[in-house]
Amino acid sequence: MKLYNFFRVEFVFLLLFFVSCSKDDTPATSPPSTPVVEKITWPLGTPKLKVVGKYLQDPCGNIIKLHGVAMTPSPWFNGGAVGEWRWNNYDVAGCLQYNNAIIDKLSDAKQGWYLNYVRLHIDPYWTNNLGISGIQENDISQFNIERFKDAIDKVIIPLIAHAKTRGMYVILRPPGVCPEQIAVGGAYQDYLKLIWDYISKHPSLKNSDHLMFELANEPIRIKLPDGTYGANTQAHFDQLKLFFQPIVNMIRANGANNILWIPGSGWQSQYKGYAVNPIEGENIGYAVHIYPGYWGKDNNDPTVFRANWNENIKPVADIAPIAITEIDWGPDKYSVWGKGGLTGTAGGWGFGANFKVLTDESANVSWNVLSPENLIDKGSVNGGIAYDNNPQACANAVNIWFKEYAKKLVICK
């Protein structure tokens, strides 16, 4: 009887179960899904980096590749070039306000920007004698050491300090650009020694955790012992070593172990001879510039671009970290230095996408665009993505790629 009752109860239960399930064959409607908001922790910290082999590494051993923008704190480069004079007349407060705001914007994930370094130029606007106009950036005849020191304290150090609060490393470059011809023992080498001797002794700059030095901007040709000038033979690279090695040695003798970025010749496009006769010492990398028309060829062509990279850049990228401290591109109608360069597609026609392929393959390349105007419209703090957000211009691509890099970046806290 007990067994019978058990089966009877079981039967009734199962019957009720199936009847209840058969009342409505329509699947239950799920509540509306909430879009998943992608969260990337940003900005990150700036622990001290070091060169290990061909890589930048943080104290935890993570390989670090930085992505950023070049900035020049002067009225012309802070809006004057695009007709918007945002400050003038050596207005330090106005200068800091604008440049700090740009640093804030370009490191703000909420605004869609994920930069983590600045290439900072000590512009001759701050370091030349007052009242002098009409001279070129490669003319050091009006350099004033006292104005230089004043600018370091009032403009450059505050910008470097602010960058750190926004998780941004800084590569500092000296005032102006190289003259067309330089020589070992010449006036320009002496000028650079003066600059870097002061900086590498300065207590706020020497061994600063997030600060690196780019020793010069765009050497072109160098003098050989026979008195001729040229570039890109081993004899010329040997002279470049004799030009920069004493500056490196002086910085180290001053007790500064900041990472040093060494330029090549040909407007920073030629490096192969450094692989044969490299700059000696610790924490050494090479600072490179690349544009679509470099090496006299159209680098929109992926085969041409790879051949140029392999000949001129890869030899040092195989032995040391690389920082591309100038690059931009865009269709001819836009105000870019790299006119005619297109983003294109990886493996197909286009400069930008194939540049990304080459740097990703190398796995040790940091890089920054030429100016804030390459990213935000007219370099405005309130500007949207530059160049109409055109997918063939650099701003659109950089906005996407730097976010992708940020997702993958792991760095010591």
UniProtKB/TrEMBL annotation:
Entry GO MF terms: hydrolase activity, hydrolyzing O-glycosyl compounds
Pfam family name, one: Cellulase
* Protein name according to UniProt: Glycoside hydrolase family 5 domain-containing protein
Is Hydrolase set as a keyword in this record? yes
Spell out the InterPro entries in the cross-references. GH, Glyco_hydro_5
One GO term of the biological process aspect: polysaccharide catabolic process
Q: Which domain of life is it from?
A: Bacteria
Q: Lineage, please?
A: Bacteria, Pseudomonadati, Bacteroidota, Flavobacteriia, Flavobacteriales
What family is this?
A: Belongs to the glycosyl hydrolase 5 (cellulase A) family.
Alphabetic keyword roster: Glycosidase, Hydrolase
The UniProt record lists the Glycoside hydrolase family domain at 97-326
